[in-house]
Amino acid sequence: MAGPDVGPVLNIDNWHYRAEGSSSFVIFNPKIRRILKLRKTDARDSSQKVCDEDWTLCHDYVKTLIQPILGSKFICLPKMIPTTRKFLEAAIQRFGHQRPEKRRGSQIDVNKSYVLSFPDFCFLPSPEKTSDNPTFSIEIKPKKGFLPVSHHIPDDLAIKYSVCRVCLHQHHKVQNGVWEHHSQYCPLDLFSCDPPRMKYCLNMLLRNPQNNFRICKDGVLIYQVFEKSTPSLQEQQDLVNQLKPYFGDGTSTEMIEENPLESSCVQAFLDVLIRTLLSNNVQNGITHHVSSRPSLGAQFCKESGYKTKDSFQTSVKAEGIENCILQRLLAAQSLSVLEIDEIYPLYLKVLKYLEEHPEDSHNYILDFPYGGTFNYADGVHLGISNNGSNGKKLDLSNVSIKDAVQLIREFLITRTVKDCSIMVAAQLVDENYDGGALCMPNGKSYLHSAVVIDLDPKPSSRIPTYERTDRKIAQEYLSHSMEKTGK
Question: Does the predicted TM-score (pTM) go above 0.85?
Answer without folding.
Answer: yes
